Amino acid sequence: MPITTRAAVVESGGAPFTLADVQLDEPGPHEAVVRMVATGLCHTDLGVASGGLPFPLPGILGHEGAGVVEAVGSAVTGVEPGDHVVLSFTSCGECGNCNGGHPAYCATWLPLNLIGGRRADGTSTVSRDGEPLGGHFFGQSSFAEKALVDERSLVKVDPDVPLESIAPLGCGVQTGVGAVWNVLKPVTGSTIVVLGAGAVGLSAVMAAALTPATTIVAVDRVGERLSLARELGATHTVNAGAEDLAETLAAITGGKGADGVVETTGNVTVLRQGVDALGARGTLVVVGAPPFGSEVALDVNGLLGGKRIVGLTLGDAETQSFIPALVDLVKAGRLPLDRLISTYPFADIDQAVRDMGAGKAIKPVLTF
Questions:
Q1: Alpha carbons within 13 A on the beta-carbon side of 91
Q2: pLDDT tens for residues 247-295?
Q3: Global pTM exceeds 0.85
Q4: Which tens digits make up the pLDDT trace of 14-23?
Q5: Of the candidates 192, 265, 266, 271, which has an alpha carbon nearest to the alpha carbon of residue 233?
Q6: How far apart are CA 239 and CA 245, in angstroms?
Q7: What sign results for the dihedral spanned by CA atoms 288, 362, 282, 187?
Q8: How far is CA 215 from the centre of its chain?
Q9: Is 173 exposed, middle or buried (0-12, 13-18, 19+ CB in 10 A)?
Q10: Contact 364, 198 (CB under 8 A)
């Protein structure tokens, strides 16, 4: 029988989140019903809710869920009722990238996670008054008291770690950490520059502090966030609103340039500045997503010193091993994620959206 639950529905692009009763479909063989305990709010949710992506609305978003498994489909083997889980993206599990340990680059990633709104077979996971809603967002649509979750979105985690403290691991945190660990892979003495000190950027700073990098530079325009970056491991900070970024980075690096840059702002001007700040054989990781069709002009001769520009989705993480490792670091106090989190009751989702937009909250987490 369908399961009735309370969800935050976006009726149309630009509309607020509205709490409503919806009906979840019965779990398929490779799905589970999860009682949500917490879910992070991400800029991707806000971008879709604004109508910036062709996700079918009205619909239910949310893709940083954490909760407790209540029921599983007949073919689910990795979790069972009572297990604590963090929810992340889904993938087909069959294409070359999935089989090669890179599910974030699944051949069907876009329809399965971001724009499809339905299962891979075209069926709907959620409805309201008999009418299908957009769902299956990142295989979870976790802005609801209960979610019907794709098996490949489920990651079993240590039940001793409070779920509200690790919900953001499913997207923003693993993206920032993965940019450093999985792409830049700093060696002894490396210089890492992080452009933007939001949730993703500060996650990258924390990750860099756990590597042999000796110079970690955080760049932002908000003084409070730069102060927090210092506390989380940055050795230098640059206020881009008050200092010349190129000159300051050149002084910090002794004119050698950075070994690695993580660009989280989605601003193409900042991206170009990041490329110019690279040293020989340096790598810039593009994490921030500007509007579709955005282009950036580059000095081609400036790239001939071995510079690399790499796009990144979700940290290029294999979630079943990556997320539990991050949970262990949170539990040990070595990844102080709590410094980024502000909690809100689920019913106050619109207040969380406003605070995030105003820069008052780095990583809002809704609690149930």
A1: 24
A2: 999 999 999 999 999 999 999 999 999 999 999 999 999 999 888 889 9
A3: yes
A4: 999 999 999 9
A5: 192
A6: 8
A7: negative
A8: 25
A9: buried
A10: no
